[in-house]
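writing this on my phone so excuse typos. first protein, seq and then structure
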Amino acid sequence: MEQQLTLDTLAPRERAEITSVDWSALAPDEGKRLRAMGIDEGARVAIAHRGIFVGRDPIALMVGRMTVAIRRVHARAMTVKLV
């Protein structure tokens, strides 16, 4: 059985595909904003780098040719598989 990975556990530059998002763990406006940026099931992503402070927030996420900053709590709500 394949181990369930969440986006917040990926190593920098490790490529993955989002397989599911727990939208109930996010506020409705946060979910809408993430979807507008293309962060949804099926998106290919990689972590560019993490914040330097406690909690390692924010996470710089590469989605296609775009880099966006998301909070770790958002990344924790996303299940991914390595590609």
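second protein below, same order as before
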Amino acid sequence: MEVKAQVLPFCLSKGSGTFRFGIVAGDESRWLDECNLKKTGDRIYTIKDALLDKGEVRLVICPLADTKGFVMEVSGSRLPENISLCWAFGACNEDETLSKEGNIISPGACRDNVFSDEENVVTVYYGESMGLRVTSGIMPVGSELRLSDAHRQKTPLELYHSGKKTDAPVLSGFYSWTAQENCYFCFYKQNAKADYNYFMLPELFQKENKR
């Protein structure tokens, strides 16, 4: 049975951030939480939508053993040639109730987030200055990242082109995806055991997926 994707977006524990994922076809875009999905077990999501024509996107999300966070594999089959990926990450806030407002990234939880990005890696700083907290994220190499306005997330492309002048900053990203390619995303709390690079994610995913 296909159901609305109410399990999306993906919220890290203890207010460590929210990841909202979307697809783009030409000038049209849609958040996956607005698409139809079939969930298999605890980890596998198959997404279908008119933008995908007869194709589908498959997500496999695995929690990390060494820290709070997840690694995700994205794959597709029978997809149109013009499909790209677009996403947002933010709402890092110690007040978990503020960070979980339905199927959006809560603008109120984004207000004090500070982002530092370098190519396909991002670090988010949040919390009180004497107890600063950090969440790290890794995206596919070649991703185009920018700060955007969390007040404007009606569609992935609206958010991506919204501009960075806002009191609710969120990181948005765009990736020109080749459907035959498996790509990976990882968001996590850094510690002595957990400090990753993109080249490590396929092996990390296989390891966590076997648990």
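The CA atoms of residues 22 and 31 lie 4 Å apart. thats all i got for now
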